[in-house]
Amino acid sequence: MSGLEVTPGVSLELDDIQAGALYERPSPYVGTYLLLCIRDREDGRELVRRLHRIVSSAGVVDAAGDTSLTVAFTYHGLEALGVPAASLESFAPEFRQGMAARAELLGDIGESGPDHWEEPFGAADVHVAIAVLSSDESRLRAAAEKARAAQVELPGIELVWRQDCYQLATGRTSFGFKDGIGQPAVEGSGRAPTNPRERPLKAGEIILGYPDETGELPPMPAPDVLGRNGTYVVIRKLHTKVAAYRTYLRSRSANATEEDLLGAKVVGRWQSGAPLALTPDRDDPELGRDPQRNNDFGFADDPRGFKCPVGAHARRANPRDALDHEGSVDVRLHRMIRRGTSYGPMLPDGVLDDDGIDRGIIFVFAGAHIRRQFEFVKTQWLNDGIFIGAPLESDPLVGPHDDSSSFTIPQRPIRRRLQDLPPFVVTRGGEYCFAPSLSALRWLAELDT
After folding, report:
1. Using an 8 Å Cβ cutoff, are 371 and 92 in contact?
2. What confidence tens digit (pLDDT) does each residue in 321-358 have?
3. Three-state DSSP class for 254?
4. What is the mean pLDDT of residues 148-162?
5. How far apart (Å, rounded) are the C-alpha atoms in residues 253 and 416?
6. Structural contact between residues 441 and 52, judged by C-beta atoms closer than 8 angstroms
């Protein structure tokens, strides 16, 4: 395991944990997401038996860095497999309810509401989610074929949705910005943090069965073999209105340089990935490319947001040390593993007209606490502005916007306020899932209820 820093203090059972929950994806990569429906219980258990043989373990680091397959189940999927009622009731309430039932809380209303979601998201017949990712297209096809073969001759299993995806070599998403920079390290994972200011998260923040940042064991599904070494997974398909975003910036900028700066103020980083906190006046592509430097910063020295606006997307999603003075806010309790994967072709540079093609991001979150991680960040930090003293403002990039939406950019002598922000991101669907350990996959396959 050369090049990895083993963190003392906790021993994760890596051979029993699915790799996708802990390790970075290769870059660049291609991938495929699949959703399956279990029509027959016995076929469902046979599917799990076959998937167990090909799921990637975190104990095999090379597999996570090259080609990996991850499997997760919705509440309805576990129900379809015949998981006993007492075990089903032991899962987190928000997982049992599902994302569609919590859409209004999450701000998924109007155009982003479940009534407008892409089928079959939010329906009771979404049971199994599979992600296959690889740095090589031929290896991806081989791994995807293994996943497809797992359901061959199982008439009780139906493929109900598929989405191909990718990450460019630049790491940039459809809005043009490099993504996936601020991931936390997890204690015991063997991966060193890219932000030396941030110590690794306690393992229990991400993986069930270990102490979390409170020093306690997070609530875990029963029996232990089902819950331990598992993690909750949130999947969201987000359509990005790239032409509307570009048009809005263009209409409020005097020239291309000002347009680039305005985009950086909205996101909190330049397109290269260089953070405003380190280079507030101009882009620094070399800094953006350097993983040892582009995540090495905080916001405490910029409390009013003159370098990076307090309402910028990246600062809302991870306030870092900006809230340390609050005392009552522990940012570490709301950290999570985030994965953003592009789908659909990029809108060519300079194009301001919508070409009608669906493009966006498949957003995946992994953590032990759906409510205080994903849901808290989405509702309290992205959708609301109370915590930054701007109660009427939401995240300028991904927040739900209406005709009165605005975004404040601190500057001297007079702050600038962008008005009439249109929505730039629309939710196309999503699911709350549970990614069990390899031991739990065996337990599920051997159920006899």
Report:
1. yes
2. 998 876 668 999 999 999 889 999 999 999 999 999 99
3. coil
4. 91
5. 12
6. yes
